[in-house]
Amino acid sequence: MRWNGGDADHPDSVDSADHADIPGSGTSGARLALDGVGRRYGAGESAVTALSGVSLRVEGAAFIVILGPSGCGKTTLLNLVGALDTPTCGTVTLDGADLAGASRRRRREVRRRTVSFVFQSFNLFPALTAGENVRFGADAAGRGQARETTERLLAEVGLGHRADHFPHQLSGGEQQRVAIARALATGNPILLADEPTGELDFGTGVQILALLRAQADAGRTVLVVTHNREIARVADRVVELSSGHVVADGPPPDGSIPVSDLRW
Ligand SMILES: Nc1ncnc2c1ncn2[C@@H]1O[C@H](COP(=O)(O)OP(=O)(O)OP(=O)(O)O)[C@@H](O)[C@H]1O
């Protein structure tokens, strides 16, 4: 699902023809493939193997939870999918584009057109208002129609009336809703969220999950990292990691429930 089209008047406006080979241009959801992926940090005796032999496929829109205990490699996996990092071995492809062997410039372009990020600690720009934070997402991706997109998305996350407020004037849950709106403003088909409810109380966390779930239902590929097994129950698919290996991949092992039935 595309959130906005081109805008010839926008200075960063991108002609889609220039980006025909960039993943995410004109797709609904994403086609992602990891084959035999490993990631080691450091060398010699102090080397750490964060991921080993990870293979998985994602086709189109879905709400996918990457589940596992602290240190099992969840963030490392998200960084590889998000073209922030490259594997030590194996291949990562996004809509057919090889990320493992890509130059930094190529990965930057893939990030710009394909993925957006939501973090545990919100990571809003403190000196920018909620509206400016959201607009930053639209501008960074060069999607055009930034003002309209910002207004629409802030309203969609229930914060249309707080556009001029700074992050320190918002609650944690409100800040995370702004962060999600900023991610959506990119118009990119993949949304990557690293422990997005980690700093929120239960009720607020449920609101955020409902918002993320709705993005998958609207056609995005949403990957949420968590150590919380209950959260995994609202996913379409759960990829469980243990010590850098995929140990399960399928429907929620403890059974599926709607977001409204969550308890943790
Ligand atoms: N830059 C790095 N240098 C060395 N080791 C690293 C680096 N980044 C991560 N690691 C190690 O790789 C392993 C996996 O880390 P990762 O952050 O991916 O796990 P995680 O499952 O996301 O953990 P958490 O839930 O605590 O955030 C851990 O043992 C970690 O210490």
Descriptive notes:
This protein has helices spanning 74-81, 104-114, 130-141, 146-156, 172-185, 202-217, 229-232, and strands at residues 30-41, 48-60, 62-67, 89-94, 97-98, 115-118, 190-194, 221-226, 237-242, 245-250. The chain has 264 residues and is α/β, with parallel strands linked by helices. It has a domain at 60-81 and 110-261: P-loop containing nucleotide triphosphate hydrolases (Rossmann fold), CATH 3.40.50. The protein is globular. Residues 1-27 have low confidence and may be disordered. The protein binds adenosine-5'-triphosphate. Residues 41-42, 48, 50, 68, 70-76, 227 line the site of adenosine-5'-triphosphate (ATP). Adenosine-5'-triphosphate binds at residues 41-42, 48, 50, 68, 70-76, 227. One of its GO terms (molecular function) is transmembrane transporter activity.
List the helices and strands and how they pair.
Blueprint: E1 30-41, E2 48-60, E3 62-67, H1 74-81, E4 89-94, E5 97-98, H2 104-114, E6 115-118, H3 130-141, H4 146-156, H5 172-185, E7 190-194, H6 202-217, E8 221-226, H7 229-232, E9 237-242, E10 245-250
Parallel strand pairs: 3-8, 3-9, 6-7, 7-8
Antiparallel strand pairs: 1-2, 1-4, 4-5, 9-10
Domain ABC transporter: 32-263
Region (Disordered): 1-26, 245-264
Pfam family, one: ABC_tran
Report a brief summary of the structure.
InterPro entries: AAA+_ATPase, ABC_transporter-like_ATP-bd, ABC_transporter-like_CS, ABC_transpr_LolD-like, MacB-like_ATP-bd, P-loop_NTPase. The strands form two sheets. The chain has a six-stranded mixed β-sheet with strand order 6-7-8-3-9-10, with helices on both faces.
